[in-house]
Task: inverse folding
């Protein structure tokens, strides 16, 4: 926070929620409490809706999004439709829809390159899109079970989570070729870049770890256990607090890993079932956590704190959240009255 082709079934489902999570959800439904109440306990959300922007395509699954602050364009992966939707956040209108990205999961705008990289899991490609023309200008084949992406401005490499391949695929943007595959020793979750250290951090889902990669050598330089975390997936890096926040899918938890000195978990909190995407507002020092259950959680992370200040049901399938420097939150919702929309909100306080 943080991109039309006929829908294509993904080779590997975007979210492998465990049997444990599915059982918990089923029990909730059978008890008559359903998604809206499971994990929703907490202070209410205080948001003002700025706009509901109609999106193109059907009501199938939406996935990651990426914002370019230079152009004001937001790119949304429409996994179910196999397309990337470009939204002009200044006019609050769709600027275009890019075809040819089957079962697209991750999407990453790289402003300094004027390009958008889309992880097309249906074909195993990383698709390159010209941000100005919205034309597909390249494809990198054999990238694996592609998912999240991150860019290192120093090496000008894009790192791509190869989920079931248990590795990160490294692409040189100067040649648009794969230059390395970093074995993680377990299923790859989200990949994020830390500008302070210049390193990549990757969640390893099946080992409940966060690994640290030096992009200069493409070698793992640290592997950190995450006690209290089951199936580490989403990641957000807090440069100011020197912390990594990791979303744990199976036990609906977010843990905080201290990046100063010895890497260790210093705090954790329960969140919504099916926790997925995290977004950090570095100006307000707030962490937003979105989940498959539609629960959104808000944390105060000022001065090293990790305090949950709000948690409640936001909307069905509100599992994606992004933010801009004006503190506007972007939540793509796949089915609002039979249509996909991008809901833009701002905090009231």
Result:
């Amino acid at each position: 926070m943080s991109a039309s082709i006929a829908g294509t079934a993904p080779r590997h489902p975007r979210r492998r929620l465990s049997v444990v999570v599915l059982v918990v959800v089923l029990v909730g439904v059978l008890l008559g409490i359903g998604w809206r109440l499971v994990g929703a306990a907490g202070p209410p959300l205080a948001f003002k809706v700025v706009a509901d922007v109609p999106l193109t395509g059907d009501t199938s699954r939406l996935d990651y999004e990426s914002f370019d602050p230079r152009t004001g364009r937001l790119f949304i992966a429409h996994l179910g439709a196999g397309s990337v939707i470009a939204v002009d956040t200044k006019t609050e209108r769709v600027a275009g829809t890019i075809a040819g990205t089957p079962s697209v999961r991750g999407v990453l705008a790289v402003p300094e390159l004027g390009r958008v990289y889309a992880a097309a899991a249906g074909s195993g490609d990383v698709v390159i899109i010209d941000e100005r023309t919205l034309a597909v200008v390249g494809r990198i084949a054999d990238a694996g079970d592609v998912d999240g992406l991150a860019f290192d401005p120093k090496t000008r490499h894009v790192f791509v989570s190869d989920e079931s391949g248990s590795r990160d695929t490294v692409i040189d943007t100067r040649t648009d070729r794969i230059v390395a595959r970093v074995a993680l020793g377990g299923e790859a979750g989200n990949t994020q870049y830390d500008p302070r250290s210049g390193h990549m951090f990757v969640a390893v889902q099946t080992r409940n770890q966060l690994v640290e990669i030096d992009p200069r050598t493409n070698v793992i330089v640290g592997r950190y256990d995450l006690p209290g975390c089951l199936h580490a997936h989403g990641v957000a890096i807090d440069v100011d607090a020197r912390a990594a926040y990791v979303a744990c899918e199976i036990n609906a938890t977010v843990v905080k890993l201290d990046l100063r000195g010895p890497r260790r978990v210093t705090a954790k909190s329960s969140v919504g079932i099916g926790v997925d995407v995290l977004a950090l507002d570095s100006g307000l020092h707030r962490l937003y956590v979105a989940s498959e259950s539609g629960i959104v959680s808000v944390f105060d992370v000022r001065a090293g704190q990790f305090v949950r200040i709000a948690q409640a049901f936001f909307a069905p399938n509100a599992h994606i959240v992004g933010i801009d420097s004006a503190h506007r939150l972007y939540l793509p919702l796949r089915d609002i009255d039979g249509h996909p929309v991008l809901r833009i909100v701002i905090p009231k306080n």
